Amino acid sequence: MDFAFSPEEEAFRAQVAAFLEKEVPREYREKRITFFDMSAQSDWIQVHRSMAEKMGEKGWLSMHWPEKYGGRGVSPFYRLILREELARYHSPGYDSIGCGIVAPALLLKGSEVQKKRHLPGIASGKSMWCETLSEPNHGSDLAAIEVFAREEADCFVVNGQKIWTTNGHFADWNALIVRTDREASPNYRGLTFFLVDMKTPGITVNPVINMAGHHEFNEVFFEDVSIPKENIVGGLNKGFYVVMSLLDYERTTDTVYAIAATYLRDLEEYACDNDLLNPVLENRFAQFKAECEVARLLHYRCAWMQSQGMVPNHESAMSKMFSFELHQRISDFGMEVAGPYSQLTEESALAPMFGRISSCYLRSFAYSLEQGTSEIDRDVIAQRGLGLPRLR
Amino acid sequence: MDFGLNEQQEMMQTLARDFLTGEYTDTVLKAMVKDEQGYTPELWQKLAKMNLTGLSIPEQYGGIGDFLDLIVVLGEMGRVCFLGPYFAALVLGASLVSEAGNEEQKRKYLPGIAEGKIKATLAVVESKAKYDIDEIESRAISQGGYYVLNGRKLFVLDAQSVDYIICAARVDDADVEQDGITLFIIDVNTPGVSIKALPTVAGDKQSEVVFENVKTSAKDILGEENEGWPYVERVLHRANIARCAEMVGMAEQVLKLTLDYAKERTAFGHPIGAFQSIQHRCADMLVDIDGSKFATYQAAWRLNQGLDAARETAIAKAFVSRACRRVMASAHQVHGAIGFTEDHILHYYTKRARAYESSFGGIDYHLGKLAGLK
């Protein structure tokens, strides 16, 4: 047992904090901008890219990768420290899809050529990624996806629609999973994982505005989009296995526990500054603080497992579900803290925290849906973690 | 960061688990709940032979291991819903003597505790039962080289099976609003000490202890006169973390019972554990248990390192208590009517979890502490 960071890890945290203190635009900190508010901030994509490149120059986006691929081979706790500080400073700049999902998938399942071609772009913060998994008719049941890629002599040609594509409107590259065999049984054996240049002719990206009024995800149409065969990751019809290992990663790369704890801190500061605290409210803040701590520990357990060469599976589903649902509950609680003021949007000068309370609340409905619904997480925990029998 | 157990902790865990699962069956548990003392001297001797009664006592006084080893063993005791003065003797008595006692007192009590020959408990709360210093009204008046102690303590753990009770009291005219608390270690056989069992839901052994003109002296003061409260606070931290460890063990066992039942019981042609409604409850139980475990370990680790653990202790006790409620409620729901019967073992865990939750401060007490830490 050891619940402390090493002196080297602490030093890294201080270094990151000093960097962010200097580099994060003042307005972002004042308004407590998060990833979810990107479309409310006209320069968000630009700041996101420039912060990513600055961190890329320092080697921070790839430090936990093996040295062979430009990393420093440090523990996954470094990535987590970086993301905790980014959350604390309300800083954009971390491409959670490129750094968090595609890079680990390439390191695990990519060919040498693919690694050499794509990892440097991710490490430098210069290429941004999106992933296209869900379709209008298929979300949780990923194995059922229908968008089809037809095989030609030297390429595959994709036609169809994907949806809920976060960052699709500015990403340079896309991790795409589509059907390549309609006869496969079981159906998941007919899926293939492709890397797709978003500039390829035939790709159309349309915004999908969420109920918070923000634009973070999109629908993506593929019309005779041709993808070279060398862009297949993990082998033809073996895409499902890539996605499964990638989802285990996705659930551990997000640091929603840190975003939730930051929001809780901001809320308490607001309540304190505006003389809203009373014993009942203090009790509820304390309850959420305790839960934020538990969320942090559940997340650290996964990072610790990775540092020991273990692959967190149901453990990462637990961590992800707990922290996302916690953030949802804190966002809900936020609406009570400022009373009727909570409902005011950013357009009102009277809105607490520049409208953060209402926008955070509205965004929170997705926390139990994204990256696998809470229901799928609980299935994973019950079946893979506890060995309960499967009906389907 | 290291979320695992080391070799010694794993060894202690296996040792305790093997022993307790063999020895402390459901039948024994049921008998002990009915028993007046809640344990047998034979069992105590076996624990002593395995050196378990020496855990966390310094080696020079015959002890072995540290607080984390003790925490691991308490987790195993939780699994079998262990009853008996182990918690009182090790977490309360031994640690107070170790922390506050002088050399002579340590030599007098600690080796005896380690050998399983002596047991001591702690009497803090009075009628308000809120684990705060300002409720303590028990008073010792000095009279010709002695002290005469009067007071009434509640919810004293295992008072009927220990040899000594450490009583937190005020001396002479020490103001109730002030910090002046003195710890007297009193032989239970001293005239004027009376112990009355409190009938509790869980049947665990808690008592009302009355001190009526009990004659004691300066050599029975642990620590300095008027300086006892900081020791009590530290022991309360330990006690809360230890309670958390027991509750985690209890919740783990209850999840196991629930999973076994969900796999075996069939309805509509399937084991009920194949239904999402049951699976999702069980998934939530595991999240609660793992979250509880790491919150407990973190607090225990800090305390064992000699670091301040006030925040982590409050977090652990507040979270584990509520998590345990949810786990117990879900276990009952999955078990259906059979879990509601007196014969079934489940309610022993449910009841005990509730007793442990309220001991050394409940959820609101700890949330209050947490809110007070800026």
- Please give the radius of gyration of chain B in angstroms: 21 Å
Tally of structural domains of chain A: 3
Compute the average pLDDT of chain B. 96
CATH superfamily of the largest domain in chain B: Butyryl-CoA Dehydrogenase, subunit A, domain 3
Number of helices of chain A: 12
Assembly state of the chains shown? heterodimer
Explain what this protein looks like in three dimensions.
The complex is a heterodimer of chains A (392) and B (374). Chain A has 12 helices and 8 strands. In chain A, strand 6 and strand 7 (215-228) form a beta hairpin. Chain A is α+β, with helices and mostly antiparallel strands and 392 residues long. The mean pLDDT of chain A is 94. Chain B is of the alpha+beta class and 374 residues long. Chain B has 11 helices and 10 strands. Chain B has helices at residues 7-23, 26-34, 41-49, 67-79, 86-100, 103-114, 229-264, 276-304, 310-335, 346-358, 363-372; strands spanning 120-123, 139-143, 146-157, 164-171, 182-187, 193-198, 206-216, 221-222, 266-267, 270-271. In chain B, strands 1, 2, 3, 4, 5, 6, 7 and 8 form an 8-stranded mixed β-sheet that branches. A two-stranded antiparallel sheet of chain B has the order 9-10. Chain B is globular, with a radius of gyration of 21 Å. The mean pLDDT of chain B is 96. The chains are: A alpha+beta (392), B alpha+beta (374). Chains A and B meet through helix 9, helix 10 and helix 12 of A and helix 7, strand 10, helix 8, helix 9 and helix 11 of B.
